[in-house]
Amino acid sequence: MNDVVSLKARRDAALGAGAALFYETPLHIVRGEGAYLFDADGRRYVDMYNNVPCVGHANPRVAEAMGRQQATLNTHSRYLHVGVVEFAERLAALHGPQIQSVVFSCSGTEANEVALRMARFATGRRGIVCTNATYHGNSELVGALTHVGSRQPETDEVRAFPFPETYRPIKEGVGEPALCEAYLERLEDAITRLEASGAGFAALIVCSIFANEGLPNVPAGFMARAAELARAHGGLVIADEVQAGYGRTGRWWGYETAGFTPDIVVTGKPMGNGLPLAATAASRALVETFRSKTRYFNTFASSPLQAAVGMAVLDEIEERGLRENVATVGAPLKAALTQRKGAWDAIGDVRGGGLFIGVEMVKPGPDKAPDAPLAIATANRLKDKGFLTSNAGAYSNVVKVRPPLVFSADDAAAFLEAFDETVDELKAEPRRG
Asked: How far apart are CA 249 and CA 242, in angstroms?
């Protein structure tokens, strides 16, 4: 414990106090293997949060590819390299025919910024529509979308609409078709306000599964209709797959699960299994319009190292059947957590799919008031039992379960035991908040 306190004090001095840390008592992690992390005392934790090492911590194939390529060649992007071309071709082929070319970068923030600029160049307009509880990155342009319309104001070029959900719907007492229409009306209002402002409407950007919004259950057919509406107003549809993609839902892409076809797809975190790697993929026409209007390059992107590691990650997913593992392990885990709703009135809802599940914590009573302190307490108690989760969602009250794709059925069974113990302990304590 003293070592953790001492290291935290050094960290505050070296990085500046305020750099984010998880948990009331931070962890000093020194090693990873598969779905597990180990602290400085050798204690093992089941990682149920990190989607960066999607094919497992310290993956041997990825580490070998990284070392081999770095020992052979790594340079900037202004030389021909067959590995880079093959990786771009392979990535584009994982989508439908509308995706043909790729712009590589190093982070989801960069890739989303490229996507927004691409849409603006293609349409000649500047207005962007997103949800009111989203997050797409940290730059000035992309950060302007974070919780816009709720925690920060809309701007002349950014408008928001309420994220679609059935748990706390904007219109009570109606069926899903009517609720879908209600959300589409709010989306169209955001678009028309941009058109009236003079900025015009360039793009609708969404996380395909609304991850940061809390994995809401979306009214049936909403996303297909939303994409249709965006295109009817002359805009493009951007799918942010940084969290949803690479098999997280059991399919390659979250937009397949959500039932819509994007014009531009953004990927990031899991692509390099820890090596900084991201991509913006679109039609050749969209990509070449972007390239013709910018001198965009990235010193560390489109590199032989990125390509070698990116190919190794795809090989692991395909050859080890990890998308199939997501479905095989994820569906029973979600079903088991859903059964536990009845055991504790604080569990308001269980949502998500594949290996991305959210457990929403609420206060007593019929109004479904979010209980963020309880979600935080749950994550801390699970950490003490050796299972790493966190709290997230529009109200920070959703316990976020998002393990690497190598997470096993045995890991899930052990987690459920720890979850049940946590529930029993917290039920016996006074409620927080």
From this structure: 12
272 burial type by CB count under 10 A (0-12 exposed, 13-18 middle, 19+ buried)? buried
- Residue 310: Cβ-neighbour burial (10 angstroms; 0-12, 13-18, 19+): buried
- Residue 62: what residue type? V
CB contact at 8 A, 197 and 230 = no
- DSSP E strand boundaries for 3-126: 29-33, 36-39, 44-47, 101-105
Q: How far is CA 409 from CA 60, 67, 149, 301, 413, in A?
A: 22, 31, 41, 36, 6
Answer whether 145's CB lies under 8 Å from 158's CB.
Answer: yes
Helices (H) then strands (E): counts for the chain: 13, 15
E strands, 163-231, are 201-207
pLDDT, tens digit, 9 for 90 and up, residues 119-141 = 999 999 999 999 999 999 999 99
DSSP string, 276-334: --EEEEE-HHHHHHHHHH-----TTSS-HHHHHHHHHHHHHHHHTTHHHHHHHHHHHHH
Structure tokens at 157: 């070029």
Report CA 73 to chain centroid distance, whole Å.
Answer: 32
Q: Do 339 and 88 touch, CB atoms closer than 8 A?
A: no
On whether the CB atoms of residues 58 and 274 are closer than 8 A, the answer is no
Q: What is the CA radius of gyration of the chain?
A: 22
Structure-token match 């029973």, residue found: 332
The count of C-alpha atoms lying within 13 angstroms of the C-alpha of 284, restricted to the half-sphere facing its C-beta, is 5
Alpha helices by DSSP H, 31-98:
60-72, 82-93
CA distance 170 to 159: 18
Whether the CB-CB separation of 402 and 242 falls below 8 Å is answered with no
Please name the amino acid found at residue 212: N
- What angle separates helix 108-123 from helix 284-293, to the nearest 10 degrees? 90
Residues across the chain? 433
CA angle 294, 299, 302 (to 5 degrees): 85
Q: What token pair was written down for 12?
A: 């505050």
Give 273-324 pLDDT, tens digit per residue: 999 999 999 999 999 999 999 999 999 999 999 999 999 999 999 999 999 9
* Residue recorded with tokens 């951007």: 238
Residues of the chain with pLDDT under 50: none
Q: Which of 219, 217, 183 is nearest to 360 (CA)?
A: 217
Residue among 325, 306, 373 nearest 75 (CA): 306
